[in-house]
Structures are given as C-alpha cells and as structure tokens.
Design brief:
Radius of gyration: 21 Å
Protein name: C2HC/C3H-type domain-containing protein
Organism: Felis catus
Number of strands: 6
Low-confidence stretches: none
Shape: extended
Strand content: 5-15%
Distance between the termini: 55 Å
Helix content: 25-40%
Mean pLDDT: 84
Keywords: Metal-binding, Repeat, Zinc, Zinc-finger
Number of helices: 3
Length: 121
C-alpha cells in the first residue's frame, strides 16, 4: 500500500477506483468504455432467455432509464444514472407466489420446485 507522508505523520494514500456504470438489464458494473459494448450483448442475451421462459413468466423488454442530470462541469451524474439503472435491474425480478422472495424468471422456476408454504405451529 502506498503511503503519503508529511513531516508529522504517514497516512495510507486513497486509491480511487475507476468510474463504473451499472447495466440496466443485469445490474452488473462495467467501465465507462465497456458499457456501450456490454449493453447490446446483454439485451440480446435477455431476449434469448426470455423467449425460453413459459408465456406466463415472460416480461416486456427493459427500457433504458433516461437520466439527464448533468453536473456543473458538464458530465453526467453517474450516481443518479447508476441509481436509475439499479432500479431498472431490480424491476426485472419476479416474486415467488408462495414465499414472496424475488428472483430472475429462470431462477424462479428452479426455486418453486423446492419452495413450500410455511406450516403454522
């Protein structure tokens, strides 16, 4: 770890992570350059997986959130953009009709095989 020293003390230097953007489809983080490559591929994968689901679990295509907040320096507000993308990714989750937990539709099918209603004692 790098140290930043002055005459009185030494402090660990802050290491800044590069800025990342959250994918509005899958919710994963990507670099500002690679998100443009990832999103079309992720949407294509989403369509392929959605078409394999039973009709009752199919969802409408996720819409890219429009965040137009620009900071004083002329940059997009990454925090607002990431918050909107994360909310969009969470909206893709489907609740289990037995326990209420949320899953991606393909994982919900697997979960429902073992989910049992709680028995009152």
């Amino acid at each position: 770890m790098a140290l930043r020293c002055t005459k009185r003390n030494c402090k660990p230097a802050m290491i800044r992570r590069p800025p990342t953007i959250i994918c509005y489809i899958c919710g994963r983080e990507y670099g500002t350059k690679s998100i443009a490559i990832h999103e079309p591929q992720c949407l294509k994968k989403w369509h392929n997986e959605n078409n394999l689901l039973p009709k009752e679990l199919r969802r409408s295509e996720p819409k890219k959130p429009e965040v137009r907040t620009i900071t004083a320096k002329g940059f997009y507000d990454l925090d607002a953009l990431n918050e909107a993308a994360w909310t969009s990714a969470l909206s893709q989750l489907v609740p289990c009709n037995i326990c209420g937990r949320t899953f991606l539709p393909d994982r919900l099918i697997v979960h429902q095989r073992s989910c049992k209603p709680k028995v009152a004692k």
